[in-house]
Design a protein that fits this description.
single chain, 143 residues, alpha+beta, 3 helices, 34% strand, globular, disordered N terminus
């Protein structure tokens, strides 16, 4: 009976390959899972340390609620479209009123916040339930 002797060699090599592949390339944006912050330097802090969250965490929706994008406090987002709950997921970074996205497939995009309005990818999103959202969706606004 022939024994497979390559597994003792392959497993350590896979570990080395995985370690090298996960290292940050020069000039590449850090892909930290630290909480999303309003300051790029604080986003690169140690995991588990509390830092000031930016003011845009929460649910952002189009006027018709067809696209729903939740900005999570850990720097991840989850975007639903129509009946699809998690159509797109990935990471995001906020600097001032600018947001950069990198979805889990490698697609990148950006946007700009103007108060409770987010312009992103040719769409206009509103902070869910805000006066701007109610006005855009035609819902009655508080007087």
């Amino acid at each position: 009976m022939r024994r497979n002797t390559t597994s003792g060699i392959i497993a350590p090599l896979v570990g080395v390959t995985m370690t090298v592949a996960c290292q940050q390339a020069p000039g590449e944006r850090q892909t930290s899972t630290a909480p999303a912050t309003s300051s790029p330097s604080s986003a690169h802090g140690e995991a588990g340390r509390s830092s000031e969250l930016h003011p845009y965490v929460g649910m952002w929706v189009t006027a018709d609620n067809h696209i729903r994008q939740e900005l999570l406090p850990n720097g991840r987002y989850d975007e639903g479209r129509g009946e699809r709950k998690s159509a797109y997921t990935g990471r995001y970074w906020v600097t001032g009123n600018h947001i950069d996205y990198a979805d889990d497939t490698g697609f990148t995009a950006d946007g700009e916040f103007q108060g409770d309005v987010l312009h992103h990818g040719g769409y206009v999103f509103y902070r869910e339930g805000s006066p701007a959202h109610r006005q855009a969706s035609g819902a009655p606004t508080a007087e």
